[in-house]
Amino acid sequence: MLRLTGDRGLAERINWLLRIIPFGYILFVLAIFLKLRMLHSQLHALYIDMNLLDNLIAIGSVMLVSFWTLWLPPRGRSIALAALNVLLTALIFSDLVYYRYFRDFITVPVLLQAGQVGELGGSIRSLIYPYDLWLIADWGAWLALKLGMMALKKGFGRGGQGQDQPVFQQANRLADGGAGTLSEAARRQERRRRLLGRFSAGVIAFAVGFVLAVGPIRHYAKTWAGDLFENNWWNVSLYNVTGLLGFHFYDASKYVMEQLSGTDTVSAQEQTEIKRWFDEARSRRAVQNETFGAYAGSNVIVIQAEAFMNFMIGKQIGGQEITPHFNRLMEDSLYYPNYYHQTGQGRTSDADFSSHSSLHPLPAGSVAMRYPSHTFDVLPRILKEQGGYTAEAFHAYEGSFWNRNNMYQAMGYDRFFSKKDFTMDEPLGWSLGDKSFFRQSLARMTQEKQPFYNFLITLSSHHPYTLPADKKELDTGEFEGTVFGDYLQSVHYVDAALGELVEGLKQAGLWDNTILYFYGDHDNSLTDKADYERFLGKSLSDLDMHQIMNQVPLLIHLPDGNLTGTDDRPAGQLDMAPSLLHLLGISSAPYYMMGNNLFAGAETERLVVLRSGAFTDGGLYYIPSADNRFENGQCYDLESRLPIGIERCRAPYEEAQTRLRISDTIITGDLIADFRKEN
Ligand code: GP9
Ligand code: MN
Q1: DSSP string, 34-89
Q2: What is the CATH number of the domain that holds 271?
Q3: What pLDDT score does 265 carry?
Q4: Ligand 1 pocket test: which of 306, 341, 345, 398 has the largest number of ligand atoms within 8 Å of its C-beta?
Q5: Residues with Cβ within 6 A of ligand 1?
Q6: DSSP string, 11-23
Q7: 423 is a catalytic site residue
Q8: Which of 56-60, 102-106, 475-479 is least confident?
Q9: Residue 666 belongs to domain spanning
Q10: Which part of the chain is the Sulfatase N-terminal domain (predicted)?
Q11: pTM of the predicted model, to two decimals?
Q12: Same domain? 102 vs 140
C-alpha cells in the first residue's frame, strides 16, 4: 500500500474520496433538482408548494435520467453531465416560457410545431424575465470554480520544485491507479476494480432514483390520482403527480406508442356506444322548426377573431367604448354573451377545428398537426357537397402555421389565401393589420362565385398586443403602458376593422345576402385578476374569473336582420357547424357532430363542455380542481353564483367526461371513416 505523508497523504485522501464519492454527479443532481423547484415556484396555476414526496420524485427522476453517466470514465462523465445539464436546463427554461403563455407544458406534438414556437418572436421575448438567469447560476459557479482551480494549480506548479511533487499531479497519478509503479497484473486488477466500482455506482443510482421517483408516483396513483393515466388529464394535473421530467417521459412514451400502434383500435362495444351517443345527439339537434332553412342559399362569412374576449363587450374606458362597432352591430344581430371557447393546446387551430367539425380538440397538441388526414365532418366540405358553395379560407400569416395548408385542403376549401397572397401595405404585429386584411379579403369575395362560405382569421390582437403609436386610438388611462392596456387597445383596433368590413360588405352589395358569424378564438392569456377587477370596477369571484377567461362573444348577423336580441343560454364553439347548417336548411343528421344547435328551440338542453373538463348547462357551472378529481372540483349554482354540494354536478360531469372521451376516440381512431365504410 502506498503511504504518503503531509501534503501527499492529504492528496491521497482527497483523491480517494473523489474516487468513491461521485461529487460531480451529486452536484449535478442537486443543481437540476433546484432548477425544477425554481420552475415550480413560477407556476402560478399551482397553489401548492412541492411537498416531501414531490421533492423525492424530482430528485429520483433526475437520477433516472442521469444514472448512466456513472458508468463512464471520469472525463467522459464530466462531459456527459455537462451536456445533460445544458439539455435539461434548456428543457426547464422552454417549459417555463411556454407555461407563462399557455399555462401548460410542452408536449411532443407541440415540439413538432417548434417552427411556430420560434415564430412567436416578440411574444417569447416578453415572457422571459431576469429571474430566469438563476437557471444558469450553476454554470457561473462552475466556471468560477474551474478558473479558481486553474489558478490554484498554477500556484502549486510554480512552488513545487525538487522533491516536492505538485499535489495535483500526484493526485492525478494516484487516480490513474499509480500506473507508473504498478505491475501489469496489478494494473489489470486495479482497472477491473474501477470498472466494477463505476458499474455498481450506476446501478445503485438507478435503483435509488427508481425508488424515489416511482414510489411516490405509485402512492399518488393508488390514492388521489387514481385514474391518472386513463383519463384525458390536463397536462398540469399530470405534472402535479409526476413532476416535470416524469411528465415528459410519460408524454414522449405515449407519443411513441401512438406512432407505433398507428390508428387506435376501438372495440366493437365501444363503437356501438359511440354510435348510440351520436344517435341521441342527432335527435336533440335535428329540429325542423321555422328557422330551419330560413336563410338557405345565403353566403356565409365566419370571422374568428384573435384573443377576442367577451368581458369588454359593451364596456367603456374613460367614456370611450372598447368595441363600438361590435356594440352597434349587436342592435340588429343575435348576441351570445355566454359563448365559450372550447380550445386546448392547439389554441387558434383548436377554435377553428371545433367550430368547423363540432368535435372537441385533443387534450394535447392540435388536431390539425396530429391528425390532418383523418376524416371529419367539416362545414366547408358539407356546404360544397350539399349546397354547391365555394369555400375559401383567409389568414394573412404563414400558410404552414398550425399546418393550415394541409388541413384546409383536407377540409375541402377551394382556396386558402395566406400571407403570400396579401400585399403587406399595413405591417402590424405578426403580419398584416386586420383593416388591410379585411379590405383585401373583401376584394376577393366580390369576385367569388356565390353562394360562398368564407372563413377569416384575424391576427392584429395577438399577444403581446403592441400596436404602433399611430394605431392607438383609445385612452386606456390607468392601463396605459401595461399589457392589459395594450390588449384593450388592440381589440379596439380590431373592432374598427370589423366596422370597416361591414361598411365594405354593404357597399359591395353583399350585406343583405350574407350571414355574418363573428366569434373570438380563445382568451388573451392575461390572468391577473386585479386587471379585470380594476377594469370592471368590482371584485371578482373564482366563478367570475373562470367565466371571464372562457367566454368569447358570438355575434350572428342574419341577411334580413330579422333575428335579433341576446341569447343568454350557454353555447360554445362546437355549436357553430350544426347551427349554421340549420339556418341554411341542410340537415346535420348524417354527420358526427357533438355540438348544440343554437336554433333548436328554448326547451332543448344545452350542455357546454370545455376541454379542461369544466362545463355548464346554464343552471350549474363546474370548475375542475388541479388534481382533476371530481370531488375536489367546485360545483356552482348560476342563479345564486355560490358553490353548492358537489353531487349536484355529478350527472352532467359524467356526461361531460363521456363527451370528451368519445371525441378523443373518434379523432385518434379515425372512426368517422370506419363508420362511413360500414354504411
Ligand atoms: C397565427 C395564429 C395565432 O396563425 O393562428 O395562433 P395562436 O398563437 O393564437 O394559436
Ligand atoms: Mn389565437
Answers
A1: HHHHHHHHT-TT--S---HHHHHHHHHHHHHHHGGGGGS-HHHHHHHHHHHHHHHH
A2: 3.30.1120.170
A3: 77
A4: 306
A5: 306, 347-348, 395, 397, 401-402, 459, 462
A6: HHHHHHHHHHS-H
A7: no
A8: 102-106
A9: 267-292+606-679
A10: 298-586
A11: 0.81
A12: yes
